[in-house]
Every structure is written in C-alpha cells, then in structure tokens.
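Bumping my old thread because nobody answered last time. Still need a sequence for this structure:
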C-alpha cells in the first residue's frame, strides 16, 4: 500500500517540476529576448 502513494507523489513532483522548468525557461527566454 505504501508503494502506490509513493509513486503518486513522485509523479506529482515530476509533473510539477517539469511544468515549473518549462514556465521558467519560457519566462527566461522571453526576458533575455526583450
């Protein structure tokens, strides 16, 4: 029962991290390009 929630949290962290990285890179590129 512990493995399921653990994997869910890992997926949540992965999705949130990927989304944050995508938004961050997009904002960074926008700022650098002016």
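Sorry it took so long. Here it is:
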């Amino acid at each position: 029962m512990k493995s399921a929630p653990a994997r869910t949290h890992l997926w949540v962290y992965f999705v949130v991290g990927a989304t944050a990285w995508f938004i961050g890179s997009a904002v960074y590129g926008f700022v650098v390009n002016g």
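The chain has a mean pLDDT of 89. Let me know if any region looks off to you.
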